[in-house]
Structure to design on (116 residues):
């Protein structure tokens, strides 16, 4: 990760680097693997959801990410993948906002795994 940041020639402090590392680690496909692979679609989805863009701009950007055939149409599977990613991203970060109420945490996990 340090090499990637150095290659971009970005300036940062230790707190910013730690925050970035915590954020990006949420998108690891398998944290146990030596070579790190990230779910880039989910990462881009999170970035667009957190951006200051308008809802219309966010929707257009997300449409482009999930339009795998570049035919300006989303298939049922592409829409499903986008919605599941959105649910997973929102819930993975909302979990950090929960207090230590076991009932709330359990309900949260049930919703995430059900992918309603």
């Amino acid at each position: 990760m340090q090499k990637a940041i150095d290659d971009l020639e970005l300036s940062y402090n230790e707190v910013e680097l730690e925050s970035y590392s915590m954020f990006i680690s949420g998108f690891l496909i398998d944290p146990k693997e030596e070579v790190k692979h990230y779910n880039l679609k989910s990462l881009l989805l999170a970035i667009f959801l957190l951006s200051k863009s308008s809802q219309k701009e966010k929707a257009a950007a997300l449409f482009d990410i999930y339009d795998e055939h570049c035919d300006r149409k989303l298939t049922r599977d592409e829409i499903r993948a986008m919605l599941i990613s959105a649910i997973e991203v929102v819930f993975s970060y909302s979990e950090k906002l929960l207090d230590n109420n076991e009932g709330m945490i359990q309900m949260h996990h049930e919703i995430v795994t059900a992918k309603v």
User: Anything to note?
Assistant: The longest helix spans residues 76-94. The chain has a mean pLDDT of 78. The two ends are 34 Å apart (CA to CA). The CA atoms of residues 5 and 15 lie 14 Å apart.
